[in-house]
Amino acid sequence: MDGTKVHRGVALIEVLDPLVLTEIESDPNLRMYLGDRLSERCIAVQPQAIEEVVTRLKALGHMPKVLDTAEPSE
Amino acid sequence: MSASQFSVKECLRGYTSETLGVLCAEWALAASSKESRIRALEKVLQDPLHLERAAEELAPEARRALALIRANGTAFYADLVSVPGLIGDGRTKESIDGLARRGIVLVSPLNLKGAFTFNDLVLNGHAPDAGPSLVIPATISRILADPPAIKSTQAPADSDDTCKQVSPADSMVWCVLDTLRAVDLVEPRLTSTGVIHKSDRARLASVAKDAGVSTEGLDLGLMMTLGTGAVADAGRRLITTPESLAWAQAERPDQIRALFQAYLSSNELPDVKLFYSDLFDSLEEAMPRKTLRRVYHRRLAAEALRVLSPGVWYRVDEYIGAIRRLDENVFFLKEHWRALKSNAGEGSTSWRQRTWQSYEARFFAWYLRSLLFKLEMIDLSESEELFRINAVGAAVLDMDPGSIMAENRPQEAVQDQPPALIVQADFGVVAYGDRCSPWLRRVLDVFGERVQHGPASTYRLTSSSIYKGEQAGIGVDTFLGLLDTNSAHGIPGNVREEFSSWLRKLDSITLLRRCDVIEFQTSELADTHATEHPRARRIGERFIIESESNRNGSPYIDYANPLPPCLDESEGLTFQANWEHLNLFVRRRLEDVGAVQEREDGGLHLALGANDSRNGAEWSLVVAELEALATGPIAGRYRTALRAWSGEIGPALTRTATLVRFDEPEVCDTALEIAEIAEQVEGRLGPRTLVVKDGCLNALKRAIKQHGVRVTRSSEIFDDGPPSAWLDSDELSDAPVAGARRRQAAPLEEDESADQAAALPSYAPRIVCEILEDAINRRRPVIIRYQPPWSDHAAVRRVNPVAIDLNGSAPTMNAYCHTQEAARVFKLARIAGIRVLEDETF
User: Fold this and answer.
1) What is the pLDDT of residue B355?
2) Is residue A55 over pLDDT 70?
3) Helices B636-645/B619-629 angle, 10° precision
4) B452 touching A (Cβ < 8 Å)
5) Alpha helix (H) residue ranges in B367-475
6) Are residues A14 and B505, on separate chains, in Cβ contact within 8 Å?
7) How many CB pairs under 8 A join A and B?
8) pLDDT for position B156
9) Residues of chain B scoring pLDDT < 50
10) According to the model, what pLDDT value does residue B336 have?
11) Contact B759 A48 (CB under 8 A)
């Protein structure tokens, strides 16, 4: 045990503005799909609920961009 | 082109010794035993010199048969025999038999059982998708040249008048573009048999009709887009793929080639259904999927075109006659069943003549005048009696274009064309159909919302259309560049500014669908890892995303499966969760139940409290939530406390009482049988202890003494032990053993619903309860992933929820289960995933 564990296949929401994440967290229809906040701009989402999350975000007036996986940092 | 997956030796082992002897005789090989024959034949069939000489000697029809097998990788003997028009000269069987006798084609060893003889070709070769199948050894496949065209004579005709022009609205390319747009809008669902849902089909037809596309055009469009890969099945829904953009961006001949190839090879038969609606079921039965027979009519018509000279006028009637000469039986006209199905009895020559003119001739005329003309592969005279293959057709059919390239230049090459678009300040775009390239039209269809269809279509640009374009993989920059290039007056300033604002909005939220996130127990560990792996992306103090997760030694949590329980009982009314087992969703769920504190090692501590407002909620739902998260069955104290806090348990009553305790239960039993004693007793507190009525102690003592039992006073408290100890051991064995069942997150069984099950979001029982109440009110069926108590495997059920019962020890749902075809009761705590089927009702 080296103090690490891997979360395989988890979905994440990343935002540019932390306030947007706070707004997302306060929405009762989205809250049920959310998990821990990994940073002030990133939160875990149930991977099985991506469609529902995207639909709700669109209904809230956002334009979420959906990527299959994260791009490595340059 | 694919060569056989079997070696020569593997194929030959399926032959009988006598059959191998025939092959050896053909090659003049002297070998007596089966093994020596196989060795000798293998040597010859792998020798390039022998094979090249044999290939040179092959007749044209044999070479055409070989080309058909090579193109498919393998072909059933009966299937090859059933397409004589593609082989030619009426010597199909002889040609294939000759190839088989020389070993140039071998019989696939699958299902042979080592007993193949040449008689099997004839005896078992009836249905086109059964019987022996033929393969070409790789050594032979490599040296085969393309076969000569089939023999077909069609006399040229003199051009009588001017060419008919295909308007953009009639072009098959536009039809396909409109089909793609309809698929984009509807995203039609597929049934389990792969057919489009009836309601979605109607919506598709309606969208297509609004765009001026007929049902026939829509069917052909769907067939071609599926064949080119521009439309694909994504989880029981048809969607457009990036291939659609690549197709729209390709050169016109390449676009047409892709569509025509898709038409030639598609297993769908909308064209046959169009002309043989009454006979369609019988015809389809005789044309099994994935056989040459299925696409014979299309390939034969194409082969009859390939023998013509590009740029030369021919009569349509002559072309149809040529097809009839190649094979009148292309639609089974010579077969008895077709005459019977048509109520024609024997199928006389005159019946065949009439039927050919009524059906086959009309079909092939449609093939030329409608399909190929709209595909812009041929030119038609105004009278539609004559046709000629144009430059695009020659390119698509791989013919030598000769001198026609210069005179039949595609229309896109025309210079100084007026601009195709007008971009207006109110975000409207007017697109002139005849000036738009397919690529521009496709991009407009993806980005814009078409509000008016016609020669000049109008599109509206909105933030959501930009979003759709981005989702489809077309950058906004590409779109703006196209608008700039093709618009008469450029893009108005306000539109450009709004685009910039939309782009900023688009970048504000990103959803990463599937990531491997490494969590470190401390931020120092994360720092070290980030230094060692510069390409890894840090997303928090203790979290790093790795695109290639290769930390094999680390424990992992797989979010594709139901998340494992992680809560362990602790002292009092608390629970503990170790850091190693914590997933990213537990904390939030626990916070809905009680007070959560993070331990120093990163684990969580949950305390249930009497004054916690969260526990004022329905106690059974809180218990269900705890049961869902706990690694074992939770102790009764939690349930009792939660019940008590919610006011469901009445007060404990106190009273001072006098007790009488006997040494043995039998004595106590006997005492109660004596009326004098029983009269003084208020009740029994255990196997040995009785409660005495107020003021009756002395009378009781007297009665006991009368029966010889001594009575003494004692201040000690006697305990009969827990109620379970009062029972006999036999009775104990029947007590429920709650701990017998233990849930671990087991992978789903490998069945067809596994994908569906993995895609079910999981919720806390409280949310499940709300979802179910909503589904009940709106009469919507739901799919649940249910963890039955008797199995470690979660089962996926489709149920019609009827009622929710929150009374009793555990909240439950009463529902009709489609899997069991009966009413069932489901515990909410065992529902590990749920989705409401919004499109259906019950």
Assistant:
1) 92
2) yes
3) 150
4) no
5) 373-374, 391-396, 404-407, 438-447, 463-472
6) no
7) 202
8) 83
9) 1-3, 410, 412-414, 728-754
10) 85
11) yes
Chain B hits for A58, CB-CB cut-off 8 Å, are 464, 467
> Which pLDDT score, from 0 to 100, does residue B765 have?
84
Domain that holds residue A54: 11-59
Query: Does A2 reside within a domain?
Result: no
Name the residue with tokens 């981005």.
Answer: B470
Residue A54 inside a domain? The answer is yes
Contact between chains at B588 and A12 (C-beta distance less than 8 A): no
Query: In chain B, where are the structural domains located?
Result: 8-143, 163-408, 421-506, 658-733, 754-836
With CB atoms and an 8 Å threshold, state whether A3 touches B525: yes
**Closest chain A C-alpha to B294 CA, distance in angstroms:** 38
Specify the pLDDT at position B614: 62
Which B positions 43-72 lie with beta carbon below 8 A of chain A?
none
Q: Is the minimum CB–CB distance between B709 and chain A shorter than 8 Å?
A: no
Tell whether domain B754-836 is in CATH 3.10.20: no
Q: Which of residues 729-788 of B touch A (CB under 8 A)?
A: 758-764, 767
Domain assignment present for A70: no
Q: What is the per-residue pLDDT for B745?
A: 37
User: Number of structural domains, chain A?
Assistant: 1
pLDDT of residue A21: 93
Chain A closest-CA separation from residue B625 CA (Å): 14
pLDDT value of position B272: 92
ipTM: 0.95
Whether A67 maps to a domain, the answer reads: no
Cβ-count burial B307-337 (b if 16+ within 10 Å, e if not) = bbbbbebbbbebbbbbbbebbebbbbbeeee
CB neighbours (10 Å) of residue B14?
20
**Interface contact A15-B534, CB threshold 8 A:** no
Helices H, strands E: what count in chain A? 3, 4
* Residue of B30, B94, B38, B33 lying closest to B61 (CA atoms): B94
| The pLDDT of residue A28 is above 50 | yes
